Amino acid sequence: MPRMSAALICVLLVGCSASAPEAGAPVLYEGARLISGGEVVEDAAFLVEKGEFQAVGKRGSVDAPAGAVRVDLKGKTVIPALVDAHAHLGWTLLKENRTDTNTYSKENLTDHLKRYAYYGIAAVRNLGIDPGEAAYELRANPVPGAALLLTAGRGMAMPGAGPGQIYWRPVAYGVSNEAEARAAVRELAAKKVDIVKMWVDDRMGTVQKLTPELRRIIIDEAHKNNLKAVAHIFYREDAKDLLRAGIDGFAHGVRDVDIDDEFMALIKARPAVWVIPNLPDRGTRPEDLELAAGSLPPAQIARLRDNPTKPNMDLYNVQARNLAKLSAAGVKIGYGTDAGVAVGWTAHQELADMVNVGMTPAQVLLAATKTAAEIAGLSKLGGVAVGKSASFVVLDANPLEDISNTRKISQVYLQGEAVDRAALSAGFVKP
Ligand SMILES: [Zn+2]
User: Is the fold of 6-80+384-429 the same as that of 82-375?
Assistant: First the structure.
């Protein structure tokens, strides 16, 4: 499917510079299939004004106020813009394909947030490796036409034992006793972080795992400060311990072994607990390269094609089985990419991976919109409904029939404004 030209989009949609309605004029979008909140409305209509949905229903049931612009979306499918509840944006210099100790910057974060907007993602929550003030500044002053940013600030682990990459480790708090752990959480609370992140992992026996006692202290102090706590996990027995300790959510599924009855009993006893699966890489396919080509210079696409990653399918398969089991049991499944090195396009790869596990496209879309927004605390996002932010994606094909249709993006709107995807892409792919 060739990418639509800007001129063709102008024919199909109002909102291009030549025919743009006056800023703030109400716009009635009519005729699309609307998938939102687990429901499908054929031949839908919705009215957008002041960056929000003012009315949503079947075509004919929504009145257009005087002066409203009508946009015909017949043949299109509309979904709420996605929310990525687990990422690490701001580090990789994508133009140079390089990440190290000093590549994180506000400019780089902004670039990544624009890439997210390009791929239909309205908001992202960075989990634990945001040094300095940049993430807080961007959260307070979002860039128009870019995704919103939430942040956990600096996450917590034993000293030198946090995130996977060596160059990220100094960013995390290293805590080794109760006083340090409580002080770190209070410092985060003073910065009004969106969540408290901890790493509970020994990295295949190479670092010291956060002790059960410290896990409890961090969770306790977070809750005392009205913050939720999320854990990076690897081992099933740690996940069980964290469930007993009152954890609010998991930034990964269990990755060492299949989950058992005891795990299921523990998680079902706490229905508010959510799991962000972010499944591991199962290989970059030709359709992924086609998608990535919208945001990477051709030389990088060639490099990705010529040096395919060697996925660890054992690691994928155990997580696939565990996710299928959690989903079937009705556990709250969220959505996140764990993006750090590859940014933006992997959001659609993750959707496809979740369907590959056995979740239905409808379940996966719900996880990536409504549930992800809910677990990130973004009440204005995740749905096409009255009072919510008019952040939505117009697709050329129905993702319920084939989840890869989320990649056939006709247009992205954030807070009611069309994202200029053609201009963004031109800037991204320039070597
Ligand atoms: Zn992560």
Answer: no
All structural domains of the chain with their residue ranges: 6-80+384-429, 82-375
Report helix, strand and coil shares of the chain as percent, to nearest 5: 35, 20, 45
CATH for 82-375?
A: 3.20.20.140
List residues bridging with 44 in a β-sheet.
Answer: 32, 58
Ligand 1 mean position, distance from CA 210 (Å)? 16
CA distance to 52, 89, 112, per residue, from 82 (Å): 16, 16, 15
Task: Band the pLDDT of 431: cuts 50, 70, 90.
Answer: confident
How many angstroms does the Cα of residue 336 sit away from the middle of ligand 1?
9
> What residue spans of 261-396 are helical by DSSP H?
261-268, 286-292, 298-306, 313-328, 346-356, 361-366, 372-375
Structure tokens at 390: 């008019």
Residue 165's Cβ-count burial label (10 Å; 0-12, 13-18, 19+) is middle
- Under CATH, domain 6-80+384-429 is a member of which superfamily? Urease, subunit C, domain 1 (2.30.40.10)
- Distance separating alpha carbons of residues 109 and 124, to the nearest angstrom: 11
Q: What is the DSSP letter of 169?
A: G
Extract the tokens encoding 380: 């204005």
Q: Does residue 122 carry a pLDDT above 80? A: yes
Ligand 1 center to residue 65 CA distance, Å? 46
Region for 294 from its dihedrals, namely left if φ exceeds 0, alpha if ψ lies in -120 to 50, beta otherwise: alpha
Region at 36 (left for phi over 0; alpha for psi -120 to 50; beta for the rest): beta
pLDDT tens for 261-307 read 999 999 999 999 999 999 998 888 999 999 999 999 999 999 999 98
Residue 65's CB is within 10 A of a number of other CB atoms, namely 12
Distance separating alpha carbons of residues 372 and 82, to the nearest angstrom: 8
Cα separation of 238 and 254, whole Å? 9
Q: What is the pTM of this model?
A: 0.94
* Cα 331 to middle of ligand 1, angstroms: 21
> Residue 320: is its pLDDT beyond 70?
yes
Stretch (H or E) spanning 244: helix 236-245
Cα 339 to averaged position of ligand 1 atoms, centre (Å):
7
Q: How far is the CA of 12 from the centre of ligand 1 (A)?
A: 39
Side-chain-facing half-sphere of 254: CA atoms under 13 Å: 24
